[in-house]
UniProtKB/TrEMBL annotation:
<dbReference type="InterPro" id="IPR006073">
    <property type="entry name" value="GTP-bd"/>
</dbReference>
<dbReference type="GO" id="GO:0000917">
    <property type="term" value="P:division septum assembly"/>
</dbReference>
<keyword id="KW-0132">Cell division</keyword>
<comment type="function">
    <text>Necessary for normal cell division and for the maintenance of normal septation.</text>
</comment>
<dbReference type="Pfam" id="PF01926">
    <property type="entry name" value="MMR_HSR1"/>
</dbReference>
<dbReference type="GO" id="GO:0005829">
    <property type="term" value="C:cytosol"/>
</dbReference>
<keyword id="KW-0342">GTP-binding</keyword>
<comment type="similarity">
    <text>Belongs to the TRAFAC class TrmE-Era-EngA-EngB-Septin-like GTPase superfamily. EngB GTPase family.</text>
</comment>
<keyword id="KW-0131">Cell cycle</keyword>
<feature type="domain" description="EngB-type G">
    <location>
        <begin position="38"/>
        <end position="213"/>
    </location>
</feature>
<dbReference type="InterPro" id="IPR019987">
    <property type="entry name" value="GTP-bd_ribosome_bio_YsxC"/>
</dbReference>
<dbReference type="InterPro" id="IPR030393">
    <property type="entry name" value="G_ENGB_dom"/>
</dbReference>
<dbReference type="GO" id="GO:0046872">
    <property type="term" value="F:metal ion binding"/>
</dbReference>
<protein>
    <recommendedName>
        <fullName>Probable GTP-binding protein EngB</fullName>
    </recommendedName>
</protein>
<keyword id="KW-0717">Septation</keyword>
<dbReference type="GO" id="GO:0005525">
    <property type="term" value="F:GTP binding"/>
</dbReference>
<keyword id="KW-0479">Metal-binding</keyword>
Length: 213
């Protein structure tokens, strides 16, 4: 299904929301600097260089809303984006490899964990996994944290256009089996591509629906 046909199937509410105003709000490095918890928030987590910023840009139809980089670990703050005053997207620092000091990595890793555990208006965390590599131990650690904190999350495969359809099917099946008994995991896995637009409509529709409840 092309992105155009996916968008045709979008609800009118989702279409208006993601075609409307979207702005970068702020980047924070401490819990005290977080914006008020007055809107539904949807966070994007994943290993460094998994494609979080590229996915956010594609979701919002902007080319450079979220800053992208080929350098792993470039995002070092919690970056908040406001969609029409109705919901927020949160681009989290990547976990795993980063060209930074150990103390800096520990600082933003601790901030991310505190945010994921204690943000009352966090409606869902999208855990991004590179479809070429599958789940890694650090992804499992994040899922365990969210399970323990009873924070709903959904697995999103990125760069699905980089692998063959048969391999993509195997990857989706393997990830589905890995989350089968995890209490906070959403059972549906979304395979996406920031280049072709695959899966973008499904993400938009899901967030619009959740934010409305």
């Amino acid at each position: 299904m092309t992105e155009e046909s996916q968008n045709t199937a979008l609800s009118e509410d989702a279409r208006k929301l993601f075609r409307g105003d979207c702005q970068f709000m702020l980047g924070v490095t401490t819990m005290a600097a977080l914006p008020p918890p007055d809107l539904p928030e949807f966070a994007f987590a994943g290993r460094s260089n998994v494609g979080k910023s590229s996915l956010i840009n594609r979701l919002t139809g902007r080319k450079a809303l979220a800053r992208t980089s080929n350098t792993p670990g470039r995002t070092r703050e919690l970056n908040f984006f406001d969609l029409g005053g109705r919901l927020r997207l949160v681009d989290l620092p990547g976990y795993g490899y980063a060209k930074a000091s150990r103390s800096a990595v520990e600082s933003w890793t601790g901030l991310t964990r505190d945010f994921l555990r204690g943000r009352p208006n966090l409606r869902r965390v999208h855990i991004l996994v590179d479809s070429r590599h599958g789940l890694k131990p650090v992804d499992e650690e994040t899922m365990s944290l969210l399970d323990e904190s009873a924070v709903p999350y959904q697995l999103v495969l990125t760069k699905i256009d980089k692998i063959k359809p048969t391999e993509a099917a195997r990857r989706i099946k393997a990830v589905g089996e890995a989350i089968g008994r995890r209490p906070a995991a959403h059972p549906d896995i979304i395979a996406t591509s920031s280049e072709t637009g695959d899966g973008i409509a499904a993400l938009r529709e899901g967030m619009t629906s959740i934010a409305a409840t």
